C-alpha cells in the first residue's frame, strides 16, 4: 500500500510537469526554470534578480484553450497562472458533493492576503489526498485559503489540520472562513510564533505546508522533520531559486534521507524517504 501511494504521488508530480511543458510548447516557449519541473540539484540556479526580471516581463494572458479562471486568488500570466509552472487546462474545480461545493465557494470569497495561487492550492489538495494524510500541519494560516484546500483532502481521508498563524486578526478571519466552509471540526488554528508553538506538536505527521517567514524555513524544517513519518511530504512555498532561500534549499538537497523537486516556479516538494 505504501509503495502504491508513493507511485501515485510521483505520477501526479510527473503529470504536473508534463502539463507545464505542454503549455509552454503551445506558447512557443522553451522549458525553463519558471516552467515545468526542475531538479533541485541541477535546476535552481536563478538569482533573485533574475527571477524578478522574468516575472516583471510576463504580461497577463489567457490560458491555452480556455478563459481566465474567476473567483479565486491568482491570475494567468505568460507562463500559466501566476505562481505556477503548470496549468489545469483552463478548468475550474468541480465539486463532487455539497460539502465540497461549500468549501470551494468559501475559498472563492476568502480575502486574498499572502495566499497561494489557486493552482498551487489544487496541488496541495491533490498531494494531501493522494498520500492519504491523516495529520497535516500548516505554517502560515493567513486568512485560511490554503487551509481550505488541505481541508478538502482531509475530509476525505479522515484527517485533521493544525495550522499556525502569528497575526491574531488573520487567525480570527481564518477561523471564520473554516466555519463558513463547515470544516471547523477538523481544523485547529494556533496563534503565536510558530517557531515556539510547533514545539508542542507530536508525530507522526503526514504532510507539512510551509508558507510563512522565509528566513525561518530551515528552523521549521529542523523542528518538524523528526515528526514527519517516512513517506511523508513537506511542501514549501515561495522557494523559486537557490538565491532566495539558500539555507532551506541546502538543507533539503544535501540530506540523503530527502528527495526534493521544484514542481512549480515557487513550490518545493520534499519526500522523507522510507
Break the fold down into its secondary structure elements and pairings.
Elements: H1 2-26, E1 38-39, H2 40-43, H3 48-56, E2 76-77, E3 80-81, H4 98-108, H5 118-130, E4 135-139, H6 145-157, E5 160-165, H7 168-181, E6 187-191, H8 194-197, E7 205-210, H9 217-224, E8 228-237, H10 246-253, E9 258-262, E10 267-272
Helix pairs in contact: 4-6, 4-7, 5-6
In short:
With 274 residues, the protein is α/β, with parallel strands linked by helices. The protein contains ten helices and ten strands. It has helices spanning 2-26, 40-43, 48-56, 98-108, 118-130, 145-157, 168-181, 194-197, 217-224, 246-253, and strands at residues 38-39, 76-77, 80-81, 135-139, 160-165, 187-191, 205-210, 228-237, 258-262, 267-272.
Q: How is the biggest beta sheet arranged?
A: 8 strands, mixed
Low-confidence stretches: 17-84
Domain count, please report it: 1
What is the top-level CATH class?
Alpha Beta
Strand content: 15-25%
Shape: globular
State the CATH architecture: 3-Layer(aba) Sandwich
CATH superfamily membership, which one? Vaccinia Virus protein VP39
The CATH topology name reads Rossmann fold
Element-by-element helix/strand order:
HEHHEEHHEHEHEHEHEHEE
Q: How does this model look, in words?
A:
The protein is an alpha/beta fold and 274 residues long. The chain has one domain: Vaccinia Virus protein VP39 (Rossmann fold, 3-Layer(aba) Sandwich), CATH 3.40.50.150. The chain has helices spanning 2-26, 40-43, 48-56, 98-108, 118-130, 145-157, 168-181, 194-197, 217-224, 246-253, and strands at residues 38-39, 76-77, 80-81, 135-139, 160-165, 187-191, 205-210, 228-237, 258-262, 267-272. Helix 4 packs antiparallel against helix 6 and helix 5 runs parallel beside helix 6. 45% of the residues are buried.
Amino acid at each position: 500500500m505504501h509503495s502504491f501511494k508513493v507511485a501515485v504521488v510521483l505520477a501526479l508530480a510527473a503529470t504536473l510537469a508534463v502539463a507545464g511543458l505542454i503549455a509552454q510548447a503551445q506558447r512557443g516557449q522553451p522549458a525553463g526554470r519558471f516552467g515545468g519541473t526542475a531538479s533541485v540539484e541541477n535546476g535552481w540556479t536563478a538569482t533573485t534578480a533574475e527571477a524578478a526580471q522574468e516575472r516583471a516581463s510576463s504580461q497577463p494572458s489567457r490560458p491555452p484553450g480556455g478563459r481566465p479562471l474567476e473567483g479565486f486568488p491568482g491570475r494567468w500570466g505568460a507562463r500559466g497562472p501566476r505562481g505556477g509552472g503548470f496549468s489545469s487546462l483552463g478548468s475550474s474545480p468541480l465539486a463532487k458533493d455539497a460539502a465540497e461545493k461549500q468549501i470551494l465557494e468559501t475559498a472563492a470569497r476568502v480575502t486574498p492576503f499572502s495566499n497561494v495561487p489557486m493552482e498551487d492550492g489544487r496541488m496541495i489538495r491533490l498531494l494531501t489526498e493522494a498520500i492519504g494524510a491523516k495529520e497535516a500541519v500548516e505554517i502560515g494560516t493567513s486568512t485560511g485559503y490554503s487551509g481550505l484546500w488541505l481541508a478538502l483532502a482531509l475530509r476525505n481521508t479522515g484527517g485533521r489540520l493544525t495550522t499556525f498563524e502569528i497575526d491574531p486578526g488573520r487567525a480570527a478571519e481564518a477561523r471564520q472562513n473554516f466555519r463558513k466552509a463547515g470544516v471547523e471540526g477538523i481544523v485547529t488554528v494556533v496563534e503565536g510564533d510558530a517557531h515556539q508553538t510547533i514545539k508542542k506538536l507530536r508525530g507522526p505527521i503526514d504532510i507539512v505546508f510551509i508558507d510563512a517567514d522565509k528566513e525561518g524555513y530551515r528552523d521549521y524544517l529542523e523542528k518538524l522533520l523528526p515528526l514527519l513519518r517516512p513517506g511523508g511530504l513537506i511542501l514549501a512555498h515561495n522557494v523559486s531559486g537557490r538565491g532566495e532561500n539558500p539555507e532551506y534549499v541546502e538543507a533539503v538537497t544535501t540530506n540523503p534521507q530527502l528527495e526534493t523537486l521544484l514542481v512549480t516556479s515557487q513550490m518545493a516538494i520534499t519526500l522523507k524517504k522510507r
